[in-house]
Design a protein that fits this description.
Blueprint lengths: L12 H13 L7 H14 L3 E5 L2 H11 L7 E5 L8 H5 L3 E5 L10 H7 L4 E4 L11 H10 L3 E5 L7 E2 L2 E2 L6 E5 L12 E5 L2 H10 L24 H11 L2 H19 L5 E3 L6 E2 L6 E4 L7 H10 L5 E2 L14 H9 L1 H6 L3 E3 L8 H30 L2
Helix pairs in contact: 1-8, 2-8, 3-7, 9-13
The protein binds pyridoxal-5'-phosphate (PLP).
Length: 389
């Protein structure tokens, strides 16, 4: 059997045509034609005034923190359960990350934990729309507004998701997206920063082009800054993908439904949350096992891999990573964040590529079910041995 990949894009003739046109024509005076179209279409899609195409979501987060004036002495709150890219830019600007717990119901930042982590130094919060789901935004935004904390919504994984009818990425002062090759809407590598605030938009344009004014032709630099730009070919690819976003979303929802039909009645297994407030974008179909089953994610991944099925681990708590062991904040987070430590070790991302077939989903689910059954039988016989039944 051919390997079933964990992720993969949907590329049609539209993408090929746009990229071909960009590589042929988008040079010199026309170098920004596709950026402008992609940025305008993306901002319109979210109902916001500004969008800036960037080389990655990591660079979008970096620029967001810089534009908001976050620096040394400041603290920024992030959920413990996320990819390190949500937090690493906090260190780039010399600030300190504070790892708050996630909410059992959404797998995203808990508003209670966020509030508990606030100190006089807290300058910003980065809620993450994990795996395409969204946090309780009303509660988070209420705390942030009351405490005067800036909000950067990390919607890297959530293009197409909605909370109470409003699109992911459009909450907070700034929203950021990733178009990495594994994402639903992809440019290979790439990102987007979106905002309704003119001041932040102008600061970002300036910082992302070596501290010169937009449109400058005299190569005149006012500050030492950064070079964060997407290529025209990527912008063309992104535009084509964005024009197909409804189709891509329908496909992800269809894949989730296939898994749900196969796995919803398996005891001790929970699939991606679907809070009534939220339209989950299901970037990665994710299964979390009840810790009482005693089956950890690395065992499942190893067994699936032996059967040619690719998967990914649920993100490890950032506070458990060697990268953050130097921080007192990580030690406190390990003691505080019970939900993250209960979910992260027992979750895996299942194959979620856009070209996955119904038949492949059945294969994955059959294997998963047989692994759970084997483990149940093993437990039963160990129990009978120990009790002499
Ligand atoms: C939650 C989250 N934030 C940020 C990023 C960073 O995105 P990029 O790889 O485009 O820098 C990712 C990427 O996977 C992510 O999943």
């Amino acid at each position: 059997m051919e390997k079933i990949p964990v992720a993969g894009p949907s590329i049609t003739q539209k993408e090929i045509d746009y990229v071909t046109d960009a590589v042929t024509n988008a040079w010199y005076g026309d170098a920004n034609v596709y950026h402008e179209r992609f940025e305008r279409a993306f901002a319109n899609y979210l109902g916001l005034s500004h969008a800036v195409a960037l080389p990655s979501c990591t660079s979008a987060l970096h620029l967001s923190l810089l534009a908001l004036g976050v620096g040394p002495e400041d603290e920024v709150i992030v959920p413990d359960a996320t990819w390190i890219a949500s937090a690493a830019p906090i260190t780039y600007v010399g600030a300190t990350p504070v790892f708050a717990d996630i909410d059992q119901k959404t797998w995203c930042l808990s508003a209670e934990s966020f509030e508990e982590c606030i100190t006089a130094k807290t300058k910003a919060v980065i809620p993450v729309d994990l795996y395409g789901n969204m946090p309780d935004m009303d509660a988070l935004l209420e705390v942030a507004a009351r405490k005067n904390i800036s909000v950067i919504e990390d919607a890297a994984e959530a293009a197409g998701a909605e909370y109470k009818g409003k699109r992911a990425g459009s909450f907070g002062d700034i929203g950021v997206f990733s178009f990495h090759g594994s994402k639903t809407l992809t440019t290979g590598e790439g990102g987007m920063l979106v905002t309704d605030r003119d001041d932040l938009y102008h600061r970002v344009l300036f910082l992302r082009d070596h501290g010169r004014k937009p449109g400058d032709t005299q190569f005149w630099n006012h500050e030492v800054a950064y070079k964060y730009k997407m290529s025209s070919m990527q912008a063309a690819l992104g535009l084509a993908q964005l024009e197909r976003i409804d189709e891509l979303m329908d496909r992800k929802r269809q894949i989730f439904q296939w898994y749900r039909v196969e796995l919803s009645d398996i005891e001790g297994l929970t699939l991606n949350p679907q809070p009534p407030t939220t339209k989950n974008a299901f970037w990665m179909i994710t299964a979390v096992l009840d810790p009482r089953l005693g089956i950890e994610k690395d065992y499942l991944q190893r067994e699936l891999s032996k059967r040619n099925i690719d998967s990914r681990p649920f993100f490890h708590p950032l506070s458990s990573m060697p990268a953050y062991q130097y921080l007192e904040q990580a030690r406190e987070a390990r003691e505080r964040n019970h939900v993250s430590y209960r979910i992260c070790p027992y979750g895996i991302n299942l194959p979620s590529a856009l070209n996955l077939t119904r038949g492949q989903v059945t294969i994955v689910c059959e294997i998963l079910k047989s692994l759970l059954e084997e483990s149940r039988l093993r437990d039963q016989s160990a129990h009978s041995l120990s009790t002499g039944d």
